Each structure stands twice: as C-alpha cells, then as structure tokens.
Amino acid sequence: MPSFDFSDSIGRWMPRAPEMAQLLNANSIVIPHLERFLNRVMARARAELKGDDPEKARIRADISTFIKQESCHYTVHGAFNEMMLRNGYDRLPELEKDIVAHYDRLLATKSLPFLIAYCEGFESLTPPVASGWFDGSMDPIMKNADPNPANMWRWHIMEEFEHRTVCHDAFEAIHGGYWLRFYGFFYQFVSMERMVGRVYRYLLSVDRQTMTSEEIKRSKTGARRSVIGFFTPIIGGMAKILHPRYTPRAIPEPKGWDATRSDIEANWMKPQQAPALAEG
To answer: I need a surface site. Which of 7, 78, 89, 174 has the fewest CB within 10 A?
Structure first.
C-alpha cells in the first residue's frame, strides 16, 4: 500500500496539461467500481479452476495476487476521488451510480466466460500506454505536476503491467476463443469510454464555469489534444491486441519500467510494508 497524500491536491494537478489531468481524473472516478468488478469476476474464475493441475494452481495463485493489487488500487483511487469531491465536483456521486449499475448489470446477466473476456479486454489496454509513463516521454507535460497523483498513476500502471497476464490466462483456461475475446474487448472499450467521457465532460464543465471566453477556448483545444494523446497509443496497440495469436507474455517490459518500480518501492511505499512488497 503506497503513501500518497492528496490533502493539498486539486483537480487540475498538471499545470501544463490541466485537461489531461481531468481526463485521468475521469478514469479515476470509474476505476474503483471497475476494479471491484474485476475482483468479483476473477474470484469466480478462481473458484471455477478446480483440481491439482499445476497450471491451474499457478493461475489461482496469480489471481489471488491480482485481487490484492486491485484492492490496493481502488482504495488509493477512492482517496483521490474524495479529494475531487472536496474540491467542488459535487455531482460525482450521481455519475457513479450509473457506473455501479453497469457493473451490477453485467454480473447479474452475463456468463462467466464473457465476464472474463471483458476483464481481459480492459487489462490488455495497459501495455500499449505503459511506456509513456516510464520512458520519460511524458516528462514535458508532467513538469511541475503534483507528485502525489502523478506517482499514483505511475504506481498503478506499473502494477497493471506487472499482472498483465492474469486475466488472459484465466480466460484461456476457462473458455478461450478468439471471437469471444474480440467481443469482450470492444464491449468493455465502448462501455469504459462512455462512462469516462461522461465524467470528463462534467469535470470540464465545472472548471469552465469560472473561465473567460478565451480561457474556455484554450480549454477546449487542450481537451482535444488530451483525448488524442490519450487514445493514440491505445489505437496503435489494437492491431497487436486483436491479433488471433495475441498473448501479453510476448510484450517486453517497457524502457524504464524496472527503474519506476524501484523508485516507487523506495520512495512511495508505507515504511512498515516496504520489505514485504520488495520480497514479492
């Protein structure tokens, strides 16, 4: 569990790219509900993988670690999201109700193979975007950014990359099949972007209430630039993700990933838990 402190943070925590900050914030609002959903689905998958087969035992163990990591993620994002509420974005609970309803509906109506394909689709999005967080290419827009949310995202994406194989392995072990994986990917992609987009538009609308017309014009330009920048690596990675022989095991660690992990463990972990995390 990391030790980020959001007590002095604000929504526009990236001075050089405040609209990008709000796009990340919109993702953060969805994430706690998504990751609780991931954990519930993967717990079902773990229960389905019965027997003493070594491969199934390995996947069950990986799922247990996955669930612990995701629980840390949604706890930390929940603390960040409370900061957003304190900073005047008071319609967020209303928007979150629709997000919760989406995941509850899926759990109540969809099959386990589809649910795992949905989870695998989301988890496949991290590798294409990971390198930008570790290799220094985002440094220009991150200059003077609040280090707490900035490192929250580095930590989160670092761990997402670390467990990138878990949902894929569970899907292959329980069902497999290209077309279900294809369907699950696009179903979650469209659903996620619809939910994130709605929150993003709301956050920007609150910011623009106190802006001049010229500031609003610059904000709209910044928002377009941020959306393009956010989706460019994802779109670029889709050919690999949607290839019939795709496997996250074939994706090498991005440049700077190991250094990021070392930095997070040395500087952002709670002291009493750092040794246990380092051993793992």
So the answer is: 7
Interacting residues of 196 by C-beta distance below 8 A, sequence separation 6+: 23, 26, 27, 29, 30
Amino acid symbol at 196: V
Say if 10 falls within a structural domain. no
| Domain extent at residue 38 | 18-279
- Rg of the Cα atoms in the chain: 19
> Does the structure show a pLDDT above 80 at 274?
no
Question: What would the pLDDT profile of 109-130 be if each residue is shown by its tens digit?
Answer: 999 999 999 999 999 999 999 9
pTM over 0.90: yes
Query: Is residue 134 situated within a structural domain?
Result: yes
Q: Does residue 8 lie in a domain region?
A: no
Total of domains in the chain: 1
20 within 8 A of 14, measured Cβ to Cβ: yes
Element (H, E) at 140: helix 139-142
Please answer whether residues 162 and 9 qualify as being in contact, where contact means their C-beta atoms are separated by less than 8 angstroms: no
